[in-house]
Design goal:
The structure is a homodimer. By secondary structure, chain A is mainly alpha-helical. Chain A has one domain (2-339): Orthogonal Bundle (Farnesyl Diphosphate Synthase), CATH 1.10.600.10. Chain A is built from 17 helices and 2 strands. In chain A, strands 1-2 form a two-stranded antiparallel ribbon. In chain A, strand 1 (109-110) and strand 2 form a beta hairpin. Chain A is globular and about 60 Å long. The relative contact order of chain A is 0.13. Chains A and B meet through helix 4, helix 6, helix 7 and helix 8 of A and helix 4, helix 6, helix 7 and helix 8 of B.
């Protein structure tokens, strides 16, 4: 796996993260506050629990959802304390879902660190995810406008339902590309959509702006999941900080694979199907190579870039500010990263 | 296990449930509405998910938390639509925690039916619990007073933290009785306390009444957990509808066992400790017999009855209505059930 794809990840995952983080320069101060507040959440728990909470919060990544909430806040008015609260809540929900995802996937590493389930086992991890989730939704009830907590809880519910549907459809070789989009819109993009929508809502932006930002978040989040799915096939294990090829081994059929299944002759399709169902290390490598050579990856890259182009157009409807440019730059960064997976 | 304790459960678990349900006669109409609304929640989910939701909601039991919310509603004013909403939300949270508990305990049956994990495996069950939880908290944001959803989310957070602490302290032979109470107040009684507290809060009862009802719910819920812990040691597997002795096999030290550990000589203590750590079928039986013969069960029964007496006294502070009597009768029913575990 690593050998096949190293050319796509010369700069390494860290550099990729840095490319995205460049778009955050505008909001570094506020992101720092969000980070502090996320860390301080552990103190809200019983001392017997706070160590687990700290660990789960610290390992959850790039803070993309907080960044989106803050940038939209700036682009639709001002970044106010409500945006920081929103950012914290969304990131805690994200952290909760990661803890449960890692149990389900049997993942032992995330961002180079042992996962909660690797460290403490599945029992503590199920409960840790629940704790984070309950705490996030408790924090969300602090908004004076109940509509905000309602939309956050609704997005969280979509995330969980999307995960169930994804699990049901594992190894389902009849999964349509439309079903794949539905799944990733629910399991991933719903939370990005809530970040952008509520970033505008908190500023009491006009309904059409709120709707446009929700759509922006949905498109950006969908593109982000496509990027993540490509990374699982063609990333660099050492730099990505997690086990690669796990989607295929677990029967998760992602866009590059669905594209080659769709474009194959019946005979090729039978061969690919058999490899997916066997799912051994060698089969996964074969599938990854097929996705790259037969244009599955290129098609996924094109789909991701199209979504990002649409998101950038939506951002153009906002007044010209540095934050609007920050949103566009965030899309451009992700577009660059996805682009690296295209066959050169 | 079954042989040892059959004398305590002659009438069977179903009859025990019926004894509690007698206290619900007053609120049968409203409980029927709650039941309908719980069942209808499944339709709020994606069609791919609703079958799981229906199954989890239907197997979750006696509807004690809804009954408490409704009785307190009647006893502090009128049972209004908000009480029905509260009842539905609390029962969904309870259903979510049961789904995750059954994964953690590796339980294959609950109330005579296969558990979600036995039916669909742990992956779907982790996500199913998450779905129920997210949906419950989403419903809770429909209350116009944000304080209600805040207190519900706070109780849910306590439940999860309590479960983590319980898991940490498995097989911890130094668990103090005070720690046991702290754990069960969090993992079980917090949701009962929220039911009773918010039942009064929705009626805009005076603060001292709200506080008294919270305390009522906490005491009743604690007594209920003590009953459930006794049942695990001395119940009747066929009628209880679940695997008994599982607390001991999983290293959960409950009140009857903690009492005999406390009252033992050092030599007896070493023997008991060794049996707990081995936790085989025969050891569990030995421990159950010890709990019965050495007064551990009697001490737990006394503790449960004391709490129920205190709860009844708190109910006496309310105006004399049939609902107040319903609350007192509910305490009396549970007292009768706990009483059956006392050595005759």
């Amino acid at each position: 796996m690593v050998r096949v794809v190293k050319s796509f990840t010369k700069a390494g995952q860290q550099a990729q993260d840095n490319r995205i983080k460049q778009s955050f320069e505008l909001i570094n101060t506020q992101l720092y506050s969000v980070e502090e507040r996320i860390r301080s959440q552990a103190r809200e728990f019983d001392p017997a629990v706070d160590g687990y909470i700290s660990y789960a919060c610290e390992s959850s990544g790039k803070r993309l959802r907080p960044a989106l909430a803050l940038l939209v806040g700036g682009a639709t008015g001002n970044i106010c304390p409500g945006h920081l609260d929103l950012a914290v809540v969304l990131e805690l929900i994200h952290a909760a879902t990661l803890v449960h995802d890692d149990i389900i996937d049997g993942a032992d590493k995330r961002r180079g660190q042992p996962t909660a389930n690797a460290k403490w086992g599945n029992t503590i991890s199920v409960l840790l995810g629940d704790c984070l989730f309950a705490h996030a939704l408790k924090l969300s009830t602090n908004f004076s406008n109940g509509e905000i907590s309602r939309r956050i809880a609704s997005a969280a519910s979509d995330v969980c339902s999307g995960e169930i549907i994804q699990t049901q459809r594992r190894f389902d070789l009849k999964l349509a590309i439309g079903d794949y989009y539905k799944i990733i819109e629910m399991k991933t993009a719903a939370l990005f959509a809530a970040a952008a929508e509520l970033g505008a809502f908190i500023n009491e932006a006009p309904p059409e702006v709120i709707a446009a930002m929700k759509s922006f978040g949905m498109k950006f989040g969908t593109a982000y999941q496509i990027y993540d799915d490509c990374l699982d096939i063609a990333g660099d294990e050492k730099n990505a900080g997690k086990t690669l090829g796990s989607d295929l081994r677990k029967g998760k059929l992602t866009l590059p694979i669905l594209h080659i299944l769709n474009a194959s002759t019946e005979a090729q399709r039978q061969g690919l199907s058999a490899a997916i169902l066997r799912g051994s290390g060698g089969d996964v490598e074969t599938l990854a190579v097929a996705a790259l050579r037969q244009g599955g990856m290129a098609a996924a890259v094109a789909a991701g870039r199209k979504l990002l182009g649409e998101a950038m157009n939506l951002a153009c409807e906002l007044p010209a500010t540095k934050y609007r440019e920050g949103l566009r730059d965030l899309c451009a960064s992700l577009g660059d990263l996805i682009g690296r997976f295209a066959m050169e």
